[in-house]
Specification:
The chain is α/β, with parallel strands linked by helices and about 400 residues long. The chain has 14 helices and 17 strands. The protein folds into 2 domains: about 150 residues, Aspartate Aminotransferase, domain 1, CATH 3.90.1150.10; about 240 residues, Aspartate Aminotransferase, domain 2. The strands form 4 sheets. Strands 6-12-11-10-9-7-8 form a 7-stranded mixed β-sheet, with helices on both faces. The chain is globular. The protein starts with a strand and ends with a helix. Bound molecules: pyridoxal-5'-phosphate. The site of pyridoxal-5'-phosphate has 15 residues, from helix 4.
C-alpha cells in the first residue's frame, strides 16, 4: 500500500494516509499502482463512480466558456440546475427556490439562518431556538457545529451559538415536550450518517411533521448524506414520510465538485431581501452544469430501480454476515448507506483494525460513530463487486 507519513496538512487528519492516484468505475488506484474496491465513495460523494467522461466533458466545456461569475449574475447552468432540483423534489414539497452553497455545512448554515429569519418575521425576536437530535451531525462551521449535539465535535470550540437544544433520536414524546413557539427550526437526518447509522422511524417522522406544523417551526431535512439516491430512494424523506420545509443536499450533488443546495419554500423565500445571505462561489456555472447532469442521471427511474435492487442485495448479504459473525451486534442503515455495529472490548480499535485489514486486501471502508463499520459505495456498484467487497469484509471479521 502506498501511504504517506505526516503529510503537510493540519493535524486533524491521520498521520499515515493512503495516497490515492486515480479511479475508474468503483475502483481506485494508489500512488504505487495497488487497486482497491471503494465502498466509501469519498464519504458518500462519488455516487456515479470515478473517471466519468460525461462529467469531465461537461465541466471542461463549461470551463472554456465561463468558470466563474458572481452571484450578481445568473447563468444558464445555475438556472437549469435549480429548476431540475425544484422539479425532482416536487413530491416532497413545492420548493420555490434554491440557495446554492459549496458544502454540506454551508447548506445547513443557510437553512438555520433562513429559519431564524422566518420565525423573527412571523413571531418577533426571541423565537430563535434550534432543536437537533441526539447523535446528529450537521457540519463543522459554528452554526452547524452548534446544532451537532455530540460533544467530541464541539467542546474544544465552545462557546457555541446560543439557543441550541436537543432531544434523543426517534423519541416522539421527548420531541413533543420540547418544541414550542420559541423554536425557529428542528434539524434532522433521516439516517444518522456520522452518528451511528440509525434510521428514523416513520412514526417519529410523522410526529416531526405534526409538531413543526403545529408551532409553525421550520423542519429542516439535512439530506446531505441521504439525498439523491443513497437510501435506495431518491430522498430519505420519502422513505420515512418526512415533510420538510427546507431540504439540504450536497455530497453527491456535483459528482465530486463542491456544491450544496438549500431548497426553500415560498413562505421563506418571500421574506428574503438582496444581501440577506450570499456566497462567492456557491452555484457557479461549472459545478451547477455538472450537478444538473448528475441529478438528472440519478433521478432517472431506471437508474433508481437498479439502485433499489442493489440495495436489497446489499441488505441481504449484510444480514447474512450478522448471523455468521459473532463480533457483529447488528446491521444498521438502509439502501446504499449501511453499517455493521462491532462488539469488542475496544470497538474503536477493532473497527480501525477491520478497516486496515480490508484495505490491505483491496477494499476501502468508512467508519460511523466509533463502533460502526460504514459502507457508502458508488451507487453504480454492480452485484459482482458488491459480493466481492462483502466476501473480503467477511474474511477479516470474527
Ligand atoms: N450534514 C451531514 C448529514 C453530513 O453527513 C455532513 C458531512 O459528513 C455534513 C452535514 C457536513 O458536510 P461538509 O463536510 O460538506 O461540510
Amino acid at each position: 500500500m502506498s501511504t504517506v507519513h505526516n503529510p503537510p496538512f493540519a493535524k486533524n487528519y491521520s498521520v499515515e494516509m493512503l495516497q490515492v492516484d486515480h479511479g475508474r468505475g468503483v475502483e481506485l488506484w494508489d500512488a504505487g499502482g495497488k487497486r482497491y474496491l471503494d465502498l466509501g465513495a469519498g464519504i458518500a460523494v462519488n455516487a456515479l463512480g470515478y473517471g466519468r467522461k460525461d462529467l469531465a466533458r461537461i465541466a471542461s466545456r463549461q470551463m472554456r466558456k465561463l468558470i466563474h461569475i458572481s452571484n450578481l449574475y445568473a447563468t444558464a447552468p445555475s438556472i437549469e440546475c435549480a429548476s431540475t432540483l425544484i422539479r425532482v423534489t416536487s413530491d416532497i414539497n413545492s420548493f420555490a427556490a434554491v440557495q446554492f452553497g459549496n458544502s454540506g455545512t454551508e447548506a445547513n448554515e443557510a437553512a438555520l439562518k433562513y429559519a431564524r429569519l422566518y420565525a423573527r418575521a412571523k413571531r418577533g425576536p426571541g423565537h430563535h431556538k434550534i432543536l437537533a437530535l441526539g447523535n446528529g451531525f450537521h457540519g463543522r462551521t459554528m452554526g452547524a457545529l452548534s446544532a451537532t449535539p455530540t460533544k467530541k465535535y464541539s467542546e474544544p470550540f465552545e462557546p457555541l451559538v446560543p439557543g441550541m437544544d436537543s432531544v434523543p433520536f426517534n423519541d416522539p414524546d421527548a420531541l413533543e415536550a420540547a418544541v414550542d413557539e420559541s423554536f425557529a427550526a428542528v434539524i434532522v437526518e433521516v439516517v444518522q450518517g456520522e452518528g451511528g447509522l440509525r434510521v428514523m422511524e416513520p412514526g417519529f417522522a410523522e410526529r416531526l411533521n405534526e409538531v413543526c406544523a403545529k408551532h409553525d417551526v421550520i423542519l429542516i431535512a439535512d439530506e446531505i448524506q441521504t439525498g439523491l439516491g443513497r437510501t435506495g430512494r431518491l430522498f430519505g424523506s420519502s422513505l420515512v414520510g418526512l415533510s420538510p420545509d427546507i431540504m439540504n443536499f450536497s455530497k453527491p450533488l456535483a459528482g465530486g465538485l463542491p456544491l450544496s443546495a438549500t431548497m426553500i419554500p415560498a413562505k421563506v423565500n418571500d421574506l428574503l431581501h438582496p444581501g440577506d445571505h450570499g456566497t462567492t462561489f456557491g452555484g457557479g456555472p461549472v459545478t451547477t452544469a455538472v450537478a444538473n447532469h448528475v441529478v438528472k442521471t440519478i433521478s432517472d427511474p431506471a437508474f433508481m430501480a437498479r439502485v433499489a435492487e442493489r440495495s436489497m442485495q446489499f441488505t441481504g448479504l449484510l444480514d447474512e454476515l450478522v448471523t455468521a459473525k459473532s463480533e457483529i451486534a447488528e446491521r444498521r442503515g438502509v439502501g446504499m448507506l449501511q453499517g455493521l455495529v462491532v462488539e469488542a472490548d475496544d470497538p474503536k480499535a477493532r473497527v480501525a483494525a477491520i478497516m486496515a485489514a480490508c484495505a490491505e486486501k483491496g477494499v476501502l471502508l468508512l467508519r460511523s460513530s466509533s463502533n460502526v463499520v460504514r459502507m457508502a459505495p458508488p451507487l453504480i456498484l454492480g452485484q459482482t463487486d458488491l459480493e466481492r467487497g462483502i466476501e473480503v469484509l467477511a474474511s477479516v471479521m470474527e
